[in-house]
Amino acid sequence: MIIVITRPEFFVGEAARIAELLTSGTADLVHLRKPSSTSDEMELLLRQLPPVLYDRLVLHDHFDLAVRYGLRGVHLNRRNPQPPTGWEGAVSISCHSLDELAVCHRQNYAYMSLSPVFDSISKQGYRAAFTKDQLDEARRQGLIDQRVMALGGMTFNRVKEVLQKGFGGAMILGDAWK
Question: pTM for this one?
Answer without folding.
Answer: 0.93
